[in-house]
């Protein structure tokens, strides 16, 4: 997606050879116009698949997921990382290991909001090692729902996330796929359709 790649080139900061900071439009300050275009792009890429719900994860997955849900006219659920006072006991839970934080944490979704009649689009802001995505897949599978695919805003294609998801037979769509962050430069893998 051209507008997103331009935004990354313009406002992204290379924190290291493997971490891209996008606090200016996605992870802290949010660019609503860009999020709207992202929602339209995902709706187009996943159209005709009978998606009934979008499943994302707090916090940075929520903005692109909501804009996609708006265009697709389906509800958006986000997995919670912390137990909340009002979150029911009746939960789907998955354990997610973070390679960056070297710790694992449970993520949860109320059973009230996903069931075997649903076809789910899973979404997140980043795909790196894929552990959050695998946790969301786990939760969707516990519910018995079908998984239409995974929509990712920024993929770090030099990390193994995509492979782990595709091994499970699940379609991955990312709107910007980073090949390298070396030498303080962002380079992207070419896309067929942009
Ligand atoms: P992984 O298995 O998907 O690689 O996750 P990992 O634990 O390594 O990443 C921890 C957090 O950092 C996640 O967000 C993930 O989306 C994000 N992340 C991974 N690589 C990058 C990167 O290069 N740039 C940025 N900006 N984020 C990255 P989180 O902790 O769940 O935070 P949030 O969703 O509340 O923002
Ligand atoms: Na995230
Ligand atoms: Na994040």
TrEMBL record:
Subcellular location: Cytoplasm
Binding positions for 5-phospho-alpha-D-ribose 1-diphosphate per the UniProt entry: 128-132
Molecular-function annotations in GO: glycosyltransferase activity
Keyword Nucleus: no
Residue numbers binding xanthine: 20, 27, 156
Keywords tagged on the record: Cytoplasm, Glycosyltransferase, Purine salvage, Transferase
UniProt superkingdom: Bacteria
Known catalytic reactions: XMP + diphosphate = xanthine + 5-phospho-alpha-D-ribose 1-diphosphate
Primary location class: cytoplasm
Pathway: Purine metabolism; XMP biosynthesis via salvage pathway; XMP from xanthine: step 1/1
EC number: 2.4.2.22
Keyword match Transferase: yes
CDD domains hit by this protein: PRTases_typeI
UniProt family annotation: Belongs to the purine/pyrimidine phosphoribosyltransferase family. Xpt subfamily.
Biological role stated in the UniProt entry: Converts the preformed base xanthine, a product of nucleic acid breakdown, to xanthosine 5'-monophosphate (XMP), so it can be reused for RNA or DNA synthesis.
Assembly with partners or alone: Homodimer.
Protein name: Xanthine phosphoribosyltransferase
């Amino acid at each position: 997606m051209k507008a997103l790649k331009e935004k990354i080139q313009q406002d992204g900061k290379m924190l290291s050879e493997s971490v891209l900071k996008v606090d200016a439009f996605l992870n802290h300050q949010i660019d609503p116009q860009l999020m709207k275009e992202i929602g339209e792009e995902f709706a187009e890429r996943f159209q005709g698949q009978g998606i009934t719900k979008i499943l994302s994860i707090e916090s940075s997955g929520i903005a692109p997921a909501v804009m996609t849900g708006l265009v697709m006219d389906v509800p958006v659920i986000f997995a919670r990382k912390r137990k909340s006072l009002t979150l029911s006991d009746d939960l789907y839970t998955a354990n997610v290991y973070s390679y960056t934080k070297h710790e694992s944490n449970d993520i949860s979704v109320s059973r009230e909001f996903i069931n075997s009649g649903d076809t789910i689009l899973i979404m997140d802001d980043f795909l790196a090692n894929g552990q959050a995505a695998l946790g969301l897949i786990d939760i969707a599978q516990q519910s018995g729902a079908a998984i239409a695919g995974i929509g990712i805003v920024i993929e770090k294609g030099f990390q193994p996330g995509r492979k782990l998801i595709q091994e499970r037979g699940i379609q991955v769509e990312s709107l910007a796929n980073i090949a390298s962050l070396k030498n303080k430069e962002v380079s992207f893998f070419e896309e067929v359709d942009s």
